[in-house]
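Same chain as my last thread, 302 residues:
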Amino acid sequence: MTEESIIPRIDALMTGAVDLHLHPGPSLHPRKVDHFEVARAADAAGMRAILLKDHYYPTMPIVRLINDNLGLQTRVLGAIVLNNPVGGLNPSAVDYALKQGAKIVWMATAHAKNHLDHEAKEADFKNKFPVNSKKTVEAIPATLIDDKGVVRDEVKLILDLIAEADACVSAGHHHISECFPFYEEAKARGVRRLFLNHPTYVNEGTFQDITALVNMGVKMEHSICMFVPSTFHLFDDDHLRAAIDAAGVENTFFGSDLGQKNNPTPVEGMRQIIEVLIRLGYDDDAIRLMTSTNAAELVGLE
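reply #2:
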């Protein structure tokens, strides 16, 4: 239960907040809110920007409709995730997405080999990740590197397109062992906006890996849903503080990773992580960096 005395502080910190990891519907995964509902809720909370993410389709056309027709102050951003429905690690899909204004390109998530391996081996992992509401064809696993540890040619072409558009890239749900050569290749090809989401979750990164990636210029996005009451809750306050310490406040930001049924809404989740950060003793300047400024700078918001 939120202490009444800090509600005004949370309200103030919500003003200008940025969430680059929302999962509204429609989707093959069961969702609590749709794209329009979540945009209106973010606007009512005074948020600066949100980014709509779906594991299976690009969101730029929806973003265009919202920004052009709903009259909101909150800016809504679009993205593409390179799972099987867009052809996997498909340069053409990335090219078209970027030319329609995609701000983030995620490498494979649900269809990364690493993710599929977790699903096959760990019942708890499979139970936590949303299940498609309809049966789909068997996924083709994706990897960023070949058997010799070299970044795949199609991935190199994707990185060239991202560099040209000055867009952001995440290694998605690929294993941490793939992330290092991937980000090295991204930097070599001129990609400036690098981040990794939930590094200690399916990616299996350690706190030492977080520090090493940050030293390469990779920002860390932590999923709010893993630190607040939700079906994804995995980590305690000590884990969160250690993860922030490993990267530094200036290299850390939060995305709700919410929108699923039986969970808080994305806006509720952002309020909850602000409350957690207050409880951990971070001042307002640090909290604003991690819930607004760092994310805004990553995607190049004016």
